[in-house]
Amino acid sequence: MLTQLARVSEARHIELDEIAMTVSPRFTQEGSIMADTVQSRLIDIDTSLEITTSAPREEVARLIATAERMCFMMDAVREPHDIRTRITVNGETLT
């Protein structure tokens, strides 16, 4: 997200004096590793974005909305995607 904010602010000539983001995911894990029943799940993610700028609030809000749409991680978390996995062990295909 910070990369996209930097790209959009540069393209729109919006100076950001300071910017900080905290991302806090919550997970749960159930089952047993030894019984091969362990399962981890993402419960939710809290984000906090702090920006210091002299730009008008409306421009900053638009900048943030654009950056969120451009952020690959935000997309990966918000939208379902196909995942393809290829595994090799000692040079031989496992799956």
Kindly describe this structure:
A two-stranded antiparallel sheet has the order 1-2. The protein has a two-stranded antiparallel sheet with strand order 3-4. Helix 1 packs across helix 2. It has helices spanning 2-11, 57-70, 72-78; strands spanning 18-30, 39-52, 88-89, 92-93. The model has no long low-confidence stretch (mean pLDDT 96). The chain contains three helices and four strands.
Low-confidence segments: none
What does the overall shape look like? Answer: elongated
Helical residue percent band:
25-40%
| Widest beta sheet: strand line-up | 1-2
Q: What does the average pLDDT come to?
A: 96
Q: Strand-and-helix sequence, N→C?
A: HEEHHEE
Radius of gyration, Cα only, in angstroms?
19 Å
- The helix tally amounts to 3
Major sheet, described briefly?
2 strands, antiparallel
Structural class: alpha+beta
Question: What is the terminal separation in angstroms?
Answer: 33 Å
Hey, roughly how much beta strand do the residues contain?
25-35%
How many strand elements? 4
Summarize the structure.
With 95 residues, this protein is an alpha+beta fold.
What secondary-structure arrangement, pairings included, does this model have?
Elements: H1 2-11, E1 18-30, E2 39-52, H2 57-70, H3 72-78, E3 88-89, E4 92-93
Antiparallel strand pairs: 1-2, 3-4
Helix pairs in contact: 1-2
